[in-house]
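The protein record quoted in full:
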Amino acid sequence: MTTETSALPPTSSAQAQPPVMYCANHPAVETYLRCNKCNKPICLQCAVQTPVGYRCKECVRSQQDVYFNAATGDNFIALAVAFGVVTVATPIVGFFLAVSGFFSWIIAFLAGSAAGSLLAQVVRAAVKRRRSRTMRWFALAGIILGVLAGSLIAIIFLGFNPLRVLAVWIFLALAVASALPFLR
């Protein structure tokens, strides 16, 4: 009985292993992964999983840039609108919650997130539904400044500080928590 030898040449260990690459952003990290759009070597820290495979953060960001279409002044419009609405609403809400007694907590829990969603829709309508990566932070600054200005107005004209009522803080926290995701 004769033994047949394989017609394939013997492979060396160098041919079996793919070449070692290093991450483009972290040069000390070895990787075998590449971005499926730009073919750049990336490590697992730099990789973003998408429905079509792994991409580098730069390619994902450039793909997302299509959705952000805000004009130059839209962030400041968001700040001004949030400031104006919250400045007017703070004394009214603060007074209403201050005179509600125990029910102020229930009202704050029920109405806080609705008020935040309504504020976000007003801001989005003011900027004509355009989107920006930083718009929510400008709106947050407007909310904070509006609460401070509205509290000052309440102290001067109504004689009470709405920030001393715990229900106002609950209302404010829920409003901010529901407004910011809408403005993303």
Observations:
- The chain is about 55% helix and 10% strand.
- The longest strand covers residues 47-50.
- Residues 83 and 143 are 5 Å apart (CA to CA).
